[in-house]
Amino acid sequence: MEQMAGAIRLNSKNAQQADDMMCRARADTQVSTEIVNQAMNAMEGVSRAGNKVAEIISIIDGIAFQANLLALNASVEAARAGEQGRGFAVVAGEVRNLAQRSADAAKDISDFITDTTQQVSTSNRLVQETGESLQAINQDIEQVAESVAVIADASLGLEQVNHAVNQLESINQRNVSLVEKSAASASGLM
User: Fold this and answer.
1) Which domain CATH number covers 103?
2) pLDDT category, 175, cuts 50, 70, 90?
3) What 8-state DSSP symbol labels residue 1?
4) I want to staple 36 with a disulfide (CB 3.0 to 4.6 A). Which of 5, 85, 123, 131 is the partner?
5) pTM across the whole model
6) Per residue in 102-138, pLDDT tens?
7) Range of 25's domain?
8) According to the 3-state scheme, what is the secondary structure of 52-117?
């Protein structure tokens, strides 16, 4: 019984340690889940910002297109004006070059935003999968914690059984002592 009691105490101690580890793991997964949620919110913000930049680029692209048309019209008018329009033609050519550079830059930025949006989408999916994985881990931790609690309760029950057996042994020893005294008294009467 003493060996069993020792094993029960060790089992109870181990169950308490496991319960402590489960509590820490539960807290860690909750913190990780919150971080994942914050990352998802940040990525949604980046995605919204990318959409806003795409709208602005569209406006810049439209302005570049209109400037190119105006420069083309100015070149035609400068050609009609002949010698007097030559300076105006140079300015129109520079405006056309500037419009083309603006359109090229807008296209480069648009391509960059498209690529970034795809990367954000992929990252968002990965973060969401991480969040789902953390939730599954948290559920597993809860189940293990419940099992550890059952083990701890069983250990407590076994300790109570051991205590009851020790009490029975003590009562039994008192009974043996009383029987020996009674036997001694009976033999003294004879």
Assistant:
1) 1.10.287.950
2) confident
3) -
4) 131
5) 0.59
6) 989 989 988 988 898 888 888 888 888 988 888 888 8
7) 2-182
8) HHHHHHHHHHHHHHHHHHHHHHHHHHHHHHHHHHHHHHHHHHHHHHHHHHHHHHHHHHHHHHHHHH
